[in-house]
Amino acid sequence: LVIDDLLSALVGIEGRYISIKRVRGKEGYVVFQIDSSMDLALQVSCDHAEKGRIYLGLANLLLLQELTRRIFPLCEDFVLASQFVESRSHFKTGLVNHALAAALRAFLLDYQAMVAQLEHQFRLGRLSVQGLWFFCQRMMSSLNALAVLIEKAMSNNTSGSATLNLLHSQAKAMAGDSAVRSLLEKMTDCASAAYLRMLERWVYEGVIDDPYGEFFIAENKSLQKESLTQDYDAKYWQQRYSLKDGIPSFLNNVAATILTTGKYLNVMRECGHNVQVSLSENSKLTSFGSNHQYLECIKSAYDFASGELLTLMKDKYDLIGKLRSLKRYLLLDQGDFLVHFMDIAREELTKKPEDISVEKLQSLVDIALRSTAAASDPSHEDLTCCVERSSLLKKLTSLKDLDCAYSSDKLAAADVDQPMTLNITGLETFCLGYKIPWPLSLVISRKALTKYQLIFRLLFHCKHVSRQLCQAWQIQQGFRSVKILGTPILRSSILCRSMLKFVNSLLHYLTFEVLEPNWHSMHGRLQTARSIDEVIQIHDFFLQKCLKECLLLLPELLMKVEKLKALCLQYATSIQLLIPSIEVAAAESKSKSGSSRARAKRSQDRDEQLKLASENVVMSQSILYVSQCPSQSILQSLVPTQFRFVTHHLASSAAGNSSRSSTRSSRASFLR
To answer: Any idea where the Gamma tubulin complex component protein N-terminal domain is (predicted)?
Structure first.
């Protein structure tokens, strides 16, 4: 009777003398107990026995009860495993748990087959309690290890990566028992089969096939690739696909590589470039075994995806050509285009920003492009223009992520931006843009383009200041040629020449000593780049270095440079207003053709104007005031401080380029 009850208990069924008690508060947990009626029945049988055999019967009774209790843990583990299989056989619990439940079900079928064989032996009268205990030993350790695993899985409600981590850790903990470890490794392989299929689709196709959220890579579908060209703070590349917290322990070291591989394949897929890693028998992810073959497969997939995307970007989408085009226009490498545009757009650019027609400016940009050497550039049609609503300094203040210390308080205290804000025109706010298609927007994002535009605005305004000073100098040279207003014009001309030399030296430094060498350095590094992430890093480093060396990340220094430029503009404007430039210039620029009488008439008019100008005491005093006031009061208080900062910056910049003689000469000229 006891053996019959034990055989029933082994498959989770109550018997005549063995009962099952469920543990309160713990689903699936049961306790097997020996019913008190079993003791009474055995006691009665002992009372009817012969007196000399009573003690022997009592000893057998105690041994029988002990062996029965020793078999109970095996029965309890079976019930727990059966309950786990039943609860995790639904797909809603996840593919990993579903696969683990299937593997456990197969194991329990083997267990039930063993119980059926023991029952057959019992029916033939060949099985005792001691024999039953002996035959159960083989299953005791295996089922107990699985029960421990199941308890942890149920208590933590694990799924996906957490279940795989649990299986992996439990297998490593059983290093001393080869049979149990082999069983747990088999369970791990079975449970990870579904996970491997998800991993294969990601690293070989760039697709997340994760219906129950078990994969360690998450997709944020709210982030669209269009945000790269529209949002300065776009996080598409960083957050469209990201790593979750639950990464399988055996994939920790290659998780970033796996993420990047799928991202590269996904970019190509969104470009309509259907590419898939060529699969062979050796490249299939079969298991996370100890031979680490899966790591080699992942590395091969990464190398393939990285090379394919880089080739696609460079060949089909001409990444280097686009960067060269940005250099040509936004870094003012195409000089004739800019000069022609500033000539034909002068009237529109002198208006206030809100009065400027962007459409008209765009048409003027197109005219300038078609009328110069830029017409041969196939990318010139991607060039656009825009008009900002704030000055360069205020724009820098609004960009909080730049590695500088701009603040609105310092800007107000410096009193630099206030006059510019009141009299701001399109010359201070005009900016070029560029149409960047996908997938080039990964490298040339809205943030990168904004940095290009900051440099363009600085260079464009410097060009404008230089042109204004050139006009003032030409007017003065017209008066000096006829030796009129000698002392005032001489002093004003010297000051104008100094200002012009300063602005031209600044432009030379920015273009030939900062932008040009840094661009060539970036170009050389891009030729050896092996991935798009490396290309993005190189390009961002180039922009950051250019911003810093162009003084845009040095607030105190840039404010003083802007003050000097504003002073130069005020001087040039004053000279053009005080001296009758229009008449003099017109008289000098007339064609030599025509009758001698007409030439004589023009010469007479010019002489009369010059005579009036020479006799105009107010004009002479005004020119002297304009020439002396800034040089004595403003420049003397500003320039030493300005050059102290410039000297410090250029000295630190020149330390790494001491071998460049041209750099030393140009920077020395700039310092002078």
So the answer is: 3-316
